[in-house]
Structure prediction request, 332 residues.
Amino acid sequence: MSSRVKPIIFALVLIVIGLTSPSLGQQKGQWVPGQFELNAGVIPDPGVTYANLAINYSANRLNDSNGNRILQNVTGTYSFWVDENVLYYVPKHKFLGGYFMPYIALNYASGELVADIPDTPGANLGAGGSGFADTYVQPVNMGWHLKRADFNAGYSFVAPTGRFTAGASNNVGSGYWGNDITSGTTFYVTKNKGTSLNLATAWEIHRKKSGTNETPGQAFTIEWGLGQVLPIKKDLSQLLQLGLIGYDQWQVSNNGGTVTLPTGAVVPASRLPYYSSHGIGVQSNFILPAKDLVFFFKYLDAYRAKASVEGRTFVFGFSWTLKIPKTQAPKS
Prediction:
């Protein structure tokens, strides 16, 4: 259940760069945390799976490269919604001992930034936009079921299909291509697979941003979770999975090229500091095994963000699998 869409953080960057120093602010990568936590290594059963994720992120705090809040006299909020529509296909035949699982995510995004700077006439700022966002495609992805673990690994790319114009305040896309190397692991602590440890990773490599001379630096994200499945009914027709989850995200290489400040000055993009962010929260899944249907909810609270905003993430949605071939009812 994942896609990587670029949140529209352009206006926030302009505030940081334009009103403070060029070394304080930085945009984030294309991977939005909250994609994988529990069951990170599990792939759907053979067939076609549709998943829908609604992700909301909101923040009213902006930190410098040391993690300290900046623009103390500025009040406002930054928020975005992303609706991810993910389509998986898993053939029934094994390949290299595992299952091939390509997928695509089509995304719609909307975002808003509102800032009020007291005692500064004309300095109240607002920006936002909505529309079809960047498209995430994972053409190569393999998953394996082991005795006490599930594991998957793959290559994906982000196509900059969302609206983007350098300097605009209503962008909904990143304006650049991204290449990702991903993995997911679920280790079952107990033999009945009720208790699990989960880890997902994504390494982002970015291309040059359209209309600029800037190439965003590479980024690395991990998402993790400790989960426990509890039966709601004795026949196991309804299950509840609860877990402690979190994420850690870092920029790991310099930005390339140059950036142009609102003053017109051109500075090396490498002067922008590396951003990072961490989050912790909870997840609940309501599972109907016979119907191949899962409903989920996640809440994550960010902490120790550097050169970035610091806020809260809500994720909710469902996934449904149409098995091919269909499961046959047992004969009486």
